[in-house]
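agent> fetching stored inputs for the phosphoric acid mono(formamide)ester docking request
agent> found them:
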Amino acid sequence: MDFKNKSIISLRDLTKEEVEFILQKSDEVKSDKHPDALKDKVMASLFFEPSTRTRLSFESAMISLGGKVFGFATQDSSSVSKGETLKDTIKMVTGYCDVIIMRHPLEGASRAAQEVSSVPIINCGDGSNQHPTQALLDLFTIKDKFKKIDGLNIGLYGDLRYGRTVHSLSMALSHYKVNLYFISPKILQMPDHYKLYLNQCGLKYFEAESLEEVADKLDVIYVTRIQKERFADPEEFVKVAGSYKITLNTLGMLKKSAKIMHPLPRVNEIDTSVDNTEHAIYFEQAHNGIPVRQALLGLVTGGIR
Ligand code: CP
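agent> prediction call returned; pasting C-alpha cells
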C-alpha cells in the first residue's frame, strides 16, 4: 500500500484497508521497527488555531525519528496577519519542506491547501469539520485496550454538533461492526449529514439525551468538551454550559470493563477524581498520538512502506 505524497484530509478519503494499514504501521513504530524513518525530512507545522497535543505530538514524532521541524503556533506570527491568503502561504511553505501539518478555524481549509500544495498536507483540525489523525489514534487506543473494534458499543458523549473529533471518529468507526450511541443535549446533536453518511454505510446508531439511558450498555464512553469557541450565539452556549459531567458517582452506572476516553483538552466535563480509576484512559490515549503520528509522517514522506 503506497501512501507516499498522499494527504490526510478526512476519514472519508480512507478505505478500511488503509485505516488498518496505518494502525499496523503505528504498532510497528511503537515496537521501534522504523528508528530512522524521518531522517533528513522536514515538517512545516502551521497552526492558525491553538493546540497542545496535536502540534507537540507531531513535532515530537518528527524529531524522534530523525526529522526536523519549523513553523508557527499562532496566526499572528505569520504573514496571514498582514493579509496573505492561505493558498499563497501554502504555495510558499511547499518549497521549504517535505510535509505540512496544519490546523485552521475554517472548515475545508486543509482541502483548499491540498489543492495548491506539492507536498502532502495532514489536516490537524479544520473548524468543526474533521480531525483525522485524532480519529486514528482513537482507533489505535480502542484496539489496544479491547484487542478488537468489531462488536463494541461505543458512546460519543457531549458536543457532537461542533466536535470535529467525534465527526472523524464516527466516520472511522463506519468501517467496523459497532453500535454507536450519540449522547448529547438536543442542541448539540450529531449533524444530519453525518447520520446520513452512517446510514449509507449501514452502521447502527442510537440517540439519547442523557448518559443514564444507555450507560450500562457501553464499552467506551468518548467524552468531548463543549466547543465554546464555535458557537455563533453566546446565549446558546450558556444554555448547555455545564449540562453534563462524569464524576465518581457516574462510574457506578458503567460496566466494570468500560473505558472513558476524551480527546482533551478537558474543561470540566470529567471530574479529576475519575483520572486514577481503571475506567480513565484519556492520558494514555493522548500519548498514543506519538506512534500514530510517527507512522503517518513516515508513510506520507516515504520513509515507511
Ligand atoms: N485533541 C486535540 O486536538 O488537542 P489539542 O487541541 O491540544 O491539539
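agent> quick read of the result: The chain has two domains: 11-130+287-301, 132-285.
agent> awaiting further instructions
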